[in-house]
Design brief:
This protein has 421 residues and is an alpha/beta fold. The chain has 17 helices and six strands. Helix content is 49%, strand content 9%.
């Protein structure tokens, strides 16, 4: 029989005032045997039910805050790690010795139930260089410089003049999605060998217009069959690696990009802002001179911050590759026994490219990165939290260096005083 503990206390107090145990239990809707155990002193009236809590409310709040902080800065606890840390913290707080180095699953799931704002999730991978580069200070400097350039060239309110260029690798070995199969079997999926990687260069502006894809195929001899079934207007080139290089990027920008955006030698040519990643293959004196003559502003995004500032990385390429994987799966289902080669990449990326670089997705990408509408506060504190560790270490190093310099100066000063005396 379930009962309210407050009602049990009321029934107990009623027996102290002379009411019988039977009547008090009936009036307050509590088990008679439970009430009688309390009145006879067999069980204390304020006895706790279940396990004794390891932490009080305030201690658990501190534990939760620590777990959240570690997850924010990129060093979060997994299930076992959280249980082990909580066990060690409990030992420190209670000063009790225990042979167990971890708490139970029962405690863990009860902990999550008590704190519904916590969840178990797969974190996004973040390299140390990205974590260190994406600091609030560096991003503020980036947005300040970008704002100055957009204002100077009067394009802050001209989304059709703001472009983003980026490239991504397309593999013939696609990632298989989940499939339905028998519980008694271990499913397998046929994929093509990773024979080559094809680079796809994409571009779009803040108003939602995209350029056709530009492919960089691995090989030496060009064949028009490589672009069979591709997006109208798509072009390509061959390199030994399948990656872009200085010559490829120059050709893309000065010929392909200029043709599709209407850039010319006219003196009345409007300013065009091009945002792109820094890479040695993207920088050359020839390209810089061409940009000056054609009123093209080449603006390099902060290094190692593409997961936050690169529009196509943030909102486009993930969707593109996901849809490409589905196209590959359907192609192999329709053509069993065949393989996907570089001659099919343009065809299989055609529909995904058009859908991923739709006007809605492009405008959303520019909005998410704070370019248009301009918003230098769009990147949240949680997204730059991992850089806190590196900023702290840098501050510590600076402090140590200052101490060393001060100590050296003091020693020199002391020597000079001795010599003077």
């Amino acid at each position: 029989m379930k009962y309210n503990r407050e009602n049990l206390k009321k029934a107990f107090n009623a027996t102290l005032e002379g009411m019988s145990v039977y009547k008090a239990a009936k009036v307050c809707s509590v088990p008679e045997s439970t009430l009688r155990d309390r009145t006879l002193g067999i069980v204390p009236i304020d006895v706790s039910i279940g396990f004794t809590p390891i932490f009080n409310r305030e201690e658990e709040e501190k534990l939760v805050a620590h777990i959240k902080y570690m997850a924010d800065v990129g060093y979060g606890y997994n299930k076992r790690g959280a249980r082990e840390y909580a066990a060690s913290l409990g030992k420190d707080l209670t000063q009790q010795k225990s042979n167990s180095s971890t708490l139970s699953n029962c405690w863990f799931y009860g902990f999550l139930h008590r704190w519904p704002d916590l969840k178990v999730a797969s974190p996004q991978k973040l390299t140390t260089c990205r974590a260190e580069a994406a600091s609030r200070h560096k991003l503020n400097s980036y947005y300040k410089e970008l704002s100055s350039i957009m204002t100077r060239h009067n394009i802050r309110q001209s989304p059709e003049q703001i472009y983003n260029i980026d490239e991504t690798g397309i593999s013939t070995e696609h990632n298989q999605p989940k499939i339905i199969c028998s519980k008694s079997t271990k499913p397998q999926a046929i994929t093509s060998a990773r024979s080559s990687l094809t680079t796809t260069i994409a571009a779009g502006n803040a108003i939602g217009n995209h350029l056709p894809p530009f492919y960089v195929f691995k090989g030496k001899r060009w064949s028009d069959d490589l672009l069979k079934g591709s997006v109208p207007g798509a072009e390509g080139i061959m390199t030994e690696t399948g990656w872009s290089n200085t010559q490829v990027f120059e050709k893309y920008l000065t010929e392909f990009f200029a043709k599709h955006t209407g850039i010319s030698d006219s003196r009345n040519q409007r300013s065009v802002l091009v945002l792109y990643d820094w890479h040695k293959s993207h920088v050359s004196l020839t390209l810089t001179d061409w940009a000056k003559r054609h009123n093209v502003i080449l603006f390099v995004l902060p290094p190692h911050t593409s997961h936050l500032t690169q529009h196509l990385d943030v909102a486009i390429f993930g969707l593109l590759k996901s849809m490409y994987n589905k196209e590959c799966q359907m192609f192999l289902q329709r053509n069993p026994g065949t393989s996907i080669t570089k001659h099919l990449v343009a065809e299989l990326t055609a529909k995904p490219y058009l859908r991923a670089l739709s006007p809605e997705n492009l405008t959303s990408a520019f909005k998410k990165t704070g370019i248009y509408p301009f918003n230098n506060k769009v990147i949240s504190n949680s997204e730059v939290a991992p850089s806190i560790i590196y900023e702290h270490n840098q501050d510590k190093d600076d402090t140590d260096n200052n101490k060393d310099q001060t100590s050296t100066k003091s020693k020199k000063s002391g020597k000079e005083n001795i010599e003077i005396d």
